[in-house]
Amino acid sequence: AMQLQEIFAEMSPSLSLPPSISFCQVYSRVGWRQTNIARVPANPKICEGGTGDAFALGTRFNSWTRAEVESRFGDRFAAAVFAAEPGARIGPVESPYGWHIVLILEKLPGKAADFASRRADVIREWERREREVARTELLKELVERYRPRPAPETDDALRAEIEVALAHIQS
After folding, report:
1. pTM for the complete prediction?
2. In terms of Cα–Cα distance, which of 79, 80, 46 is closest to 60?
């Protein structure tokens, strides 16, 4: 049990959930003029679509992390949506695709991983480590027993790689 807790402590940063945001948007590839902005439906009808230009990624985005928003919409867009509070309608906000009017639906704070909910992940990692130890011990035993060496016709570069690998196994 202690070993599992130690593995969990090592893994917990990667097991934690980052903050996320849900939003919907109306897109314009050429930009928004004041007259066009006035035609965008009021909250929450903005999420129903039918206004603006067709957008390949869709209208609604649920539980996206900042990294996901940045990778699809760019840093400035991500900064704008993550700075806004739920219920806010912001924009026009520029992305690499064009301009967006955005309604922030929900913001969820990050959540630290807890051992109970991630126990299966920790056990899988412990099993992976145990297999690696067993594999390494078996390789050491086989190298010790059979003393493999590169064949005489092996070229120098490959011979050097084989010798480094064998030395690594024996260490």
Report:
1. 0.62
2. 46
**Lookup: tokens for 32:** 């928004």
DSSP alpha helices (H): ranges in the chain?
Answer: 2-15, 34-39, 66-73, 75-83, 115-146, 156-170
The b/e string for 113-144 (b: 16+ C-beta within 10 A; e otherwise) is: beeeebeeebeebeeeeeeeeeeeeeeeeeee
Q: Per-residue pLDDT tens for 94-105?
A: 999 988 999 999
Radius of gyration of the chain, Cα coordinates, nearest whole angstrom = 27
List the end-to-end C-alpha distance of the chain, in Å, as a whole number: 29
Q: Is 57 in a helix, a strand, or coil?
A: coil
Residues 70-92 have pLDDT tens digits of 999 999 999 999 999 999 989 88
